[in-house]
Amino acid sequence: MGEQTPAQIDDLPKPESHSLPPIETPKARQDSSDAGHQLPHPSPAADPEIPHVPQNPSKIPIRPQKIRKLSTATEKPSISLDESSASASSSLALCASSTPSSAKNRRRSASQSSRALPLISKPLTAEGEIESAIRHLRAADPVLAPLIDTLPPPEFTERLPPFHALAKSILYQQLALKAGTTIYNRFVALCGGSDSVCPDTVLTLTSQQLKQIGVSGRKASYIYDLANKYKSGILSDNMVVKMDDKSLFTMLTMVKGIGSWSVQMFMMFSLQRPDILPVSDLGVRKGVQMLYGLDELPKPSQLEQLCEKWRPYRSVGAWYMWRITDAKAAAGSGGLEGGVVQPLQQIEPRQDGHQHQLQFVEPVNGIGNMGACIWNQ
């Protein structure tokens, strides 16, 4: 056997080649399985599970992509023009149908608000109001009933315009009845008569002119402030007449020199409001003390409680309390026999048309007053 040359090697027969099948790896099997069996596409309504992505601790973790849940609106992305028009038409129809209801609700709300506004009661000068007040007080307060039967019915006859009446109340402050009446008559004459007592006329008067008729500098400033509030439109006679009690009280106490007592007297005797109770008035407090046999003068809060049953005619009840005080002051104990007030007609010294001349103190401004005498009550 010698060494074979390259030519001899080429002449040797070559073995038959057999192609071996490819080695099947797991990945290949998975790919072939996916190719042979196509999985159904998941429905949009189903919540697909987020695949678990193994994290390599040596690498920065990658946040898995969020898969949003498809809404039913995306199932049918294509909406025909007819369907869109129909939807818009139905929305417009719904809005149109709700509009009358909303308007009705607004009107109902407005009407309820208007009903909630405070109402102004009839003045005591209205026909039948005094009779209604007497019937109510007699039935509501048995202790007051004998006094009502004994005394004549009350009268509320003040007829001055609001501005004139308020100016008059300022002029009478801290003065006796006679001195106050003298200065008031001079003031009316200085204005040119009762009909000329108005804001424009008052503002033309100088402080020196007012001083010459006996009006102090402080009272002059009060009257000027009242006239200026009328001039600027903050107040007016028409506005004052139409205001409810609470609003009127707030507005008038803004005027310098006018406190709660002055406003209450004004509302009772100038506007004839039926349900005013001047809780700080000394005459009313003394009358309630005598009527109910109290050991001490009632405090304002106690007076409110005792006179609550007089509503809505507390003005008339207060008028009767002044009459008790008048009878006591005029005749001492002689005005009362057995605890019963004698008729005022029998008390001659007091029948001068200026009853209830006690000196009172204005609780807000510290201003002395004389009860209802300046209103001829």
Describe the structure.
The structure is a single chain. This protein is mainly α and 377 residues long. Among the domains are: 128-157 and 274-346, Orthogonal Bundle (Endonuclease Iii, domain 2), CATH 1.10.1670; 159-271 and 359-377, Endonuclease III, domain 1 (Orthogonal Bundle). It is 50% helix and 2% strand. The chain contains 17 helices and 4 strands. Strand 1 and strand 2 (340-341) form a beta hairpin. Helix 7 (162-171) crosses helix 14 (260-270). The model is unreliable at 73-81, 92-99, 109-117 and 333-370 (pLDDT under 50).
Can you describe this structure in just a few lines?
With 377 residues, the protein is an all-alpha fold. The protein contains 17 helices and four strands. About 17% of the residues have low confidence.
Mean pLDDT equals: 74
- The total of beta strands comes to 4
The number of helical runs is 17
- Cα separation of the termini: 167 Å
Strand order of the largest sheet: 1-2
Which runs of at least 5 residues are low in confidence (pLDDT < 50)? 73-81, 92-99, 109-117, 333-370
Helical proportion? 40-55%
The backbone outline, from C-alpha atoms, is extended
GO molecular function, one term: DNA-7-methylguanine glycosylase activity
Keywords: DNA damage, DNA repair
Domain HhH-GPD: 171-326
Family: Belongs to the alkylbase DNA glycosidase AlkA family.
